[in-house]
Amino acid sequence: MTTSDSLTAASTTARAFLTEAAELLGPRGLTADPDLLAPWLTDWRGRYTGKALAMASPGSTEELSALVRLCARHGIAIVPQGGNSGMSGGATPDDSGHALLLSLRWMNAVRHFDVEARQITCEAGFVLQTLHETAEAEGLRFPLSLGGKGSATVGGLISTNAGGTQVLRHGSMRALVLGLEAVLADGQIYSMLTPLKKDNRGFDLKQLFIGSEGTLGLVSAATLRLLPAVAERVVIWAGVPTLVDARKLLLHCEDAAGEALEGFEVLPQACLDAVLQLLPDARAPLEGRHGWHVLIEVVADRAGADTLRDRCETMMADAFEAELLEDATMSASEAQAEAMWLIRESISPAERARGPAVQHDISVPVEKMPEFVETTAPMIEAKWPGTEAVAFGHLGDGNVHYHVIAPSVTDGAAWQAREGKEISRYIHDLVTEWGGSISAEHGIGQLKRDELARLGDPVALSIMRSVKQALDPQGLLNPGKLI
Known about the structure:
Structural class: alpha+beta
Strand order of the largest sheet: 5-6-10-8-9
CATH class of the largest domain: Alpha Beta
Helix content: 25-40%
CATH architecture of the largest domain: 2-Layer Sandwich
Shape: globular
Number of helices: 17
């Protein structure tokens, strides 16, 4: 068959598929309009832009199942997309234009809400912020939050095993999913939404789909764990000389606050300076300058609300006495607490304002993180003169965002394509040597796929490929991502 014949056959298949898909989904559920597709064809960071045959938006699990069966029959690849707020290009199609972009944003219903059991069953298109508001209306909360909570969806959060600032206490998305429904590559529906405290019927199959980035099945609904609403919180900003000291302070706070310790974030003075330059109305929480700053959040439900502030004051007084910190301040109001968190959440935009950089979402064993950062940052800056290695983030769970800011260059894109790739490869090698992960919470997508193949454990990769082959033998689910 000639190349021309192949293209003609492909276009004939595509036309036949689109005709049947339009009959299945109707005008609301399928569009090939370039203007409507355009916003969804570039990832959030602007690194990847692809093409799509069309965008499908089924309204129910049954419609999704029928659509997937149709795709399997015609050999049409599917690229699932939640809020398009991912960080690794995992929801962007390639540039062939042969794949179907799948949006589950119309599947956004709450199927069941059991306030007494503190469980909610919602569909994949349910937006995280709406989930927060729904839980709060009943005196409950969903203990995972992100900067993109206004667009991130439950399905996307599950597919990427999203983390955030509350992982220290509550774990990532994997720990919050009690039950799951997913559509398999052949259209079958896997449904295990009813959670059981104890269930020894073999493999916990829902775990296969959590973090698999839509390569094994399409998450359509989930039952999620909720907690009592926070009745009182205290946010503390502390200054310490080194990251090693920050780690010692973390251990102290874990001993003193126990499960009340909700967050423990770190940032160097350079990050604070950049944020203050970006936000002219913001103020440094402490008067002096410190090598590292620590943001601590301690919370309580109604049972512990009355004594929380006293416990925090005792915790910090003991830290001062033990010479674990140089200075600290405690929020006196919710407005002050939010102002402290605004500084933390503004680090990334402040960094972007400084110029080009390469970002790395890494983890190493928690106890090794201070040594890792303090050892490797000078190595990078010496190997690439003029760069600045900056680490910030979730010290409590061994995950920091390790960014390398470019020197003053005239062509940032060229620097990222050349030196930036070399730096990333070098950092990933270092992380692997230290027993860590090249992706702590942002996923692999297409950004780190080749690096995972290069550095991943061969046995683990072989198992992953075997599972992929078993569940998606045609390779139609989110091709080119993860593995």
